Amino acid sequence: LPAAYVEGRPLRRELLSCLLRTGVVADRGSPEAPEHLQEIDDVLGRLVDVTLWLHRPCYRKFTKPAFLQSTPSLLRPLLELYLWRASRGVAKEGGATAEERVRSASARFAGWLLDQQDRLRAGALLFKA
Prior knowledge:
- The chain is mainly alpha-helical.
- The protein is built from 5 helices and 2 strands.
């Protein structure tokens, strides 16, 4: 699924991440920017992946319909195979069960949010100006 839409066109997560990385680094010039952006990409990317592919209600309501809407009907059997393989691939990454992966990604995200909250309380924004 696209990470965003730009002028009505889908933008993949990798490209969005790259654009954010170069844009923020260029604007801020902070040596910390790449490290924080990678951390954001790692934490949020994993959470989005497990949510879209492993959380069954989300998969049924959003992930699968988004793919089906954008695919010609003649290609749907191939798409069904791709979706099955993709969801199984995400589920098998790291050797953990799907439930363990969802818990792990959620816990990591919660910890990351607490870290960011502590940084804000200490007066340190995501990037130093």
